[in-house]
Amino acid sequence: KPYCQTVTVEPQRQQFITQQALGDEQELLPASQRYWLREVRMFGDGVPWLEGRTVIPEQTLSGPDRGLLDLNTTPLGRYLFKDNRLTRDYIQIGRQGELWARRSLLRLSGNPLLLTEVFLPASPVYQIDLFPNRSSLCEVKVHGAQQPKCT
């Protein structure tokens, strides 16, 4: 938050989808009858900073994590980092065209979710050098992408 006073989230899509609708993303997640898809745009002081896509197998939504269905305008990070149940299997950083992007396979209480973020031109990531090790970057495709190959 040091780059703005107010962070807001505008949901674009929040719905269950089938495994077939995932495309190549299904290779990164365990098989499931349905997946919760949440696509949002995040703003800092009203300026669009990123587009986020979260894909969550239905099994991950059991117990207390059923609250992931009700985030609406709450930033995902506020939910994920509220306690120590979160781990990260991997993070891939790369470019989607001219924009920086990252994809993370996260686990909440051991259950997976896939988060892809594309940083829009006004995002603070373009004002500071967040990715100094560019030699190990990946091409990150947001929708229906196979796991990127790193160079």
From TrEMBL:
<protein>
    <submittedName>
        <fullName>4-hydroxybenzoate synthetase</fullName>
    </submittedName>
</protein>
<keyword id="KW-0456">Lyase</keyword>
<keyword id="KW-0831">Ubiquinone biosynthesis</keyword>
<dbReference type="Pfam" id="PF04345">
    <property type="entry name" value="Chor_lyase"/>
</dbReference>
<dbReference type="InterPro" id="IPR028978">
    <property type="entry name" value="Chorismate_lyase_/UTRA_dom_sf"/>
</dbReference>
<dbReference type="GO" id="GO:0008813">
    <property type="term" value="F:chorismate lyase activity"/>
</dbReference>
<dbReference type="InterPro" id="IPR007440">
    <property type="entry name" value="Chorismate--pyruvate_lyase"/>
</dbReference>
<dbReference type="GO" id="GO:0006744">
    <property type="term" value="P:ubiquinone biosynthetic process"/>
</dbReference>
<keyword id="KW-0963">Cytoplasm</keyword>
<dbReference type="GO" id="GO:0005829">
    <property type="term" value="C:cytosol"/>
</dbReference>
